[in-house]
Amino acid sequence: MSLIAQGIGYGVGKEHRCIDAVDLKLAPGDVVGLGGLSGVGKSTLGKLLAGHLKPHAGEVMIGQHPLHGWPKGQPSPVQYVPQHAELAIDPRWRVERVLQNGEPPEAELLSVLGIQNDWLSRYPHELSGGELARVSLARLLLPTTRFLICDEITEQLDALSEQSLWQGLMAWIKARDIGLLLISHQVELRHHLCQRDYDLVQGALIERPIAG
Amino acid sequence: MKRVMVSIVSIVTRSDDTGKSYRLALFMAIVVTLMIWGGGALPDTMMAVNPAQRSLAPSWQHWLGTDLLGRDMASRTLAGLAQSLKVGLLAAALSTLLAMVMGMMAALNRSLDRLVSSLTDMMLGMPHFVLLIMVAYAFGGGTVGVTWAVALTHWPRLARLLRHEAKTLVKSDYVQVSRSLGRSNLWLARHHLMPHLMPQWIAGFVVIFPHAILHEAGLSFIGLGIEPHLPSIGVMLANSLNAMLAGFWWVVLAPGLGLMLVAFGFERLGERLRRQALPPDRGSSGVSPGQVA
Question: Where is the ABC transporter domain (chain A) (predicted)?
């Protein structure tokens, strides 16, 4: 079961199309990078692939089924981890409630992501950006998640924490055959982790060779 | 219990704007409770017809005088305000509940959004008092008629405000994430939308409440509201017209002043709460009480 974007387009009004006839295929276990200038539409493409936005043209398929026809009340197999973790968590919820929205994550996952027990009773504003990013990620790694779209999730982490987070996350998704679309400005990170790498330029995807 | 009391005291004694709002809210809550409780607890003998004491000016025995039938005006005003407050509370609660449901339905479903928007525009396009009269008449007048009339005509402006806020919330990342985790619209409404809309809802309630009382008085004044035998402010004002012409000014003073003070107090409280419910940058250009009610 692959995640397939078939000629998807999205824009504001008729004139400006930030995503224009994009085709992309993500198979289980694939790790694909996506870069591009700020404001070019990387997050929009991520949200389109996760079903958070509906494309104005084309369709996003999950296997043979359109993602927008996914049965209501069932967790989507494609999960999008937003860029700003502080906006992705209800500010009135304690971390424990955030993690229990959906299926509660396994203890092993919490340990892999470095989530500590004493965070559970705190509110989001009592956590740092890096800690919030880990919480935001943990609640989306459900047993039903087949594809993960990470949108600049480690931007707020220091180099050491970033490395440990990616190490843990990559081991986790590899063991479960989860496909990953990694949206990041860091070319080195994308080339280090990904099998394929794309740049989004004027609404179209251009494949870049992986260095090294 | 002691901890609760300590928290209440610490909130009420705050010297900032929030403290002022809490003090005003506490004062209005005490006034409403006393009026509803006091009005209901008054013995019937205090409001009984007494031809021997007709149209007496205010005195130590009758603080606010007596009316044309010799009934004590202070007791009748208190009972009338209690009746008006009960109707106002119920009508404002129904109206704001309807606004909350409409606002959330519109934000979560595109087809319902069109329906709610059209209904809101239609309601706002009709003359307000004419609509009130029509609904009160359709429900057969009386206490039930006036309650439904106020409830069914005061929701559109608050619903429009809540719809706008709810639509912004529905587009937020955390609601989108909950949706992708398989949460239903009802779940999103209960767990994400309602808690966030509560401050606006409370402010809307406090703003609509005095309007509800005023409209109750208006409808009772023209004979479509509370039954004439019950002491209500509107009924008392309607009855006092003849007394006014005869020079018995106290007959209109007590209910008129009581109504004005209660409405003014809640208008002030509503305005304070509305300002606090909005982010600081929107405080000055936000929705005014007139726009909600």
Answer: 3-210
Plot region of A142 (φ>0 → left; ψ -120 to 50 → alpha; else → beta): beta
Domains of chain A by residue range: 3-85+144-208
- Whether residue A38 lies within 8 A of chain B, CB to CB, comes out as no
CB B68 within 8 A of CB B239: yes
Q: Which residues of B touch A78 (CB under 8 A)?
A: 180
* Cα gap A207→B176, rounded to integer Å: 29
Tell me which architecture the domain covering B19-38+73-292 has in CATH: Orthogonal Bundle (1.10)
CATH top-level class for A3-85+144-208? alpha beta
Is B182–A73 a contact, with Cβ atoms under 8 angstroms apart? yes
Are residues A101 and B181, on separate chains, in Cβ contact within 8 Å?
Answer: yes
Residue B117: count of CB within 10 angstroms of its CB = 15
Mean pLDDT, to the nearest integer, of B205-218?
Answer: 85
Give the closest of A51, A75, A92 to B181, CB-based. Answer: A75
In chain B, the residue whose alpha carbon lies closest to the alpha carbon of A73 is: B182
Chain B: closest CA distance from residue A211 (Å) = 34
Residue B109: partners with Cβ closer than 8 Å, 6 or more residues away: B185
Give the H/E segment covering residue A65.
strand A65-66
* pLDDT at B283 exceeding the cut of 50: no
Predicted complex ipTM: 0.87
**pLDDT tens digits for range B27-49:** 778 877 777 776 666 676 667 78
Please enumerate in sequence order all residues whose Cβ is within 8 A of that of B116, keeping only pairs 6 or more positions apart, or say none.
Answer: B102, B103, B105, B106, B159, B163
Residue entry with tokens 């047993």? A143
Q: Which helix (H) or strand (E) holds A35?
A: strand A31-35
Q: If you measure CA to CA, which chain B residue comes closest to A104? A: B181
